[in-house]
Amino acid sequence: MDDFDASRAAARMRDAESSLTGLRERFSVPEDAVYMDGNSLGVHGQDAAHALERALDQWRELGIEGWTEADPPWFEYGERLGDRLADVVGAKPAECVAANSTTVNIHALVGTFIDAADGTEVVVNELDFPTDHYAIRSQLRARGLDPDDHLVVVESDDGRTIEPDAIADAVSDDTAIVFMPSVLYRSGQLLDVEAITDIAHDHDAFAGFDLAHSVGVVDHDLHFDGVDFAVWCSYKYLNAGPGAIGGLYVREEHFDLPPAMAGWWGNADDTQFDLEPEFDPARGAAAFQIGTVSVFAAAPLFGSLDVTEAAGVDSLCERSVALTRYLISLVDERLPECAVGTPREADRRGGHVAVEHPDAGKLSRALRDRGVVVDFRPPNVVRVAPSPYFVGFEDVWLAVDEIRDILDADAHLAYGESEEQVT
Ligand SMILES: Cc1ncc(COP(=O)(O)O)c(C=O)c1O
Hints:
seven-stranded mixed β-sheet, pyridoxal phosphate binding
C-alpha cells in the first residue's frame, strides 16, 4: 500500500474520525493495557456488570419468586436472550436460545442431527478447536460408530486455512453432517458459511457451525444461508464474562427433531411444571435447553447485548475489518521478521490476526509483561484481536510498536520455552 501512513498520529486521527470510538467508555479496559484478547475473553463492561448486579439484587429481594417475578423472569432467560441473539446471527427469534456451553451444545446438536441423517459420517477439519472433535467423536461412539472411520477430517494445504474445494471433496452421500467453524481459532480465516451449507445440502447432509470466533463481530445470516444448526459462546466478542452462557440456533424446519440430550428445561413452558414422565418438547430451539438455566452466567448477556445492539453488528463488523486491515498493514510495514497467517481478503477474515514468528510463545509473554494482552497458539502464532468494541487504531499501533521494541532489543529471548496459555 503506497500511501499507507504508519505513524502514531495517523492512528490517532483515525480514532478521532471513528463513529464507534465512544463504545470503549462502556468497558473497563485495564489502565495502561492494550487489550488484544477480546476473541478469548472480552473485557469487563459496565452494562454486563449492571445486569449481573441486578440479577443478584432480585435474588435478594425476591428469593424463589424471581423465577417468575424478576425482570425479566429467570424462567424465561433462555428464550428472551435467544430472541435477541437471533438478530445477532441472522435468524428468526424461535430459532435461537441461550443455553448450556458451546461444547455441550455441540454434543446436543450433533447428536440430534446424526440421528436424523441418512449418512453416518461427520466432516470436520484438522484446524478445528479440539473440543469440537472430542464432542463429535464421543457422539459417534455413543451410536456404535467408530470415530476413526466416521469422523472425516479435511486437511489444510498450508496449515493455516481450509479451502471449500477440500471440504467438497470430503463430502459424500455417506455424510450426515458437515460441521465447521465460522472462523478458524488459530489463523482467523473466515469460512464461507453459505457455500459450505450448499456443499452439505448437495449431498443431503446437514450443515452445522461453531460460531465461537465470529458471533458479535461477523455479520451472519444463518437463516438466509440455509444453515441447519449452530452453536457459540458469549464470553468472547459478546463480552458477557468468563464462563457466560452459550447459545444455539436450530433452523425452524427441524423443530420436530427429538433432542438427543433432552432435559426438563427444554420442555414446553406450559407443561414443564406438570412434571410428567413424558418429555413434551418446547416448539423451537428452546427444546434444546437441558437443565436449569445458569442465571448468573446468563444475566450479564442482557447487558452486553445492549452494547452490541447499540453499535449494530454491521458497524462492528465494518470496524473490525478496518482494524484488522490496519494491523496487517502495520505488520507488513514494521515487522518484516513476522508473517501474517490470516487471509488478506476482508471477506475471508474474522476478528483476529495471526502474527507468526518462530518465537511466538516468548514474544507473547514479553508482550503481556509490557501490558499488551495477546495470546499464543503453538507453534508460532501470536493472536492479536482488535475487538471493535473497545480497541482503537492507536491501540493497534501501540501493540505493533511494542513488538518492534521487543524484537529490536531481543527482549523475548529472556523468556524460557513457553507453555500454552489457557484462554
Ligand atoms: C471454536 C471454539 N469452540 C469452542 C470453544 C470452547 O467451548 P466451551 O465454551 O464449551 O468451553 C472454544 C474456546 O475458545 C473455541 O475457540
